[in-house]
């Protein structure tokens, strides 16, 4: 892509960067989500620390298994397609998390491997998009802006999921809304497509 082909100001590459940033931002709010929710889930379901650790680490099983594969897929089929499918994939599994938790530990572990598979594609797909859309002279700034979605997603995730986890008192019944954060996060990711 030549410098002359890219218009000054806001171009398509900036829209690509914004969408990739949003994917990374939402991915990291999702990762924070389960960490905060696991406290209430452990209490509700009577988990041991070991079970809680199994649930939390299951995400990374999917992540590690699919990282290299998603890079190959992004190169073969294009970052746009792979990123769109991965966001839809992890959104669906994020929304399924509360339901899976109510079924069994095995169902929850499987439901948490799913987002790991989807989120593994965010970085490889984005780098493939940047290779096509961002001029070499702007790539380091684009990568920096993209990666800033990690700490920003964590900050916002911790702020809002902690707030959502506050018990609500209604007619003297203590109601815990940890399930809502998964629906919110999954819906947000799905809406960004």
Strand order of the largest sheet: 1-2
Q: What is the tally of beta strands? A: 2
Biggest sheet descriptor? 2 strands, antiparallel
**Rg result:** 18 Å
Low-confidence parts: 168-176
- Structural classification: mainly alpha
Helix content class: over 70%
| Count of DSSP H/I helices | 8
Q: Which whole number gives the mean pLDDT?
A: 85
- The gross shape turns out to be elongated
Beta-strand portion reads: under 5%
- Order of H and E elements: HHHHHHHEEH
State the end-to-end CA separation: 25 Å
Write up what this structure looks like.
- This protein is 81% helix and 3% strand.
- It is mainly alpha-helical.
- A two-stranded antiparallel sheet has the order 1-2.
- Helix 1 (12-45) runs antiparallel to helix 8 and helix 2 (49-77) runs parallel beside helix 5 (122-133).
- The protein is elongated and about 55 Å long.
- Residues 168-176 have low confidence and may be disordered.
Q: What brief labels describe this structure?
A:
elongated; 8 helices
Give the topology, please:
Layout: H1 12-45, H2 49-77, H3 79-103, H4 105-119, H5 122-133, H6 136-147, H7 149-164, E1 168-170, E2 173-175, H8 178-191
Antiparallel strand pairs: 1-2
Helix pairs in contact: 1-2, 1-3, 1-5, 1-6, 1-7, 1-8, 2-3, 2-4, 2-5, 3-4, 3-5, 3-8, 5-6
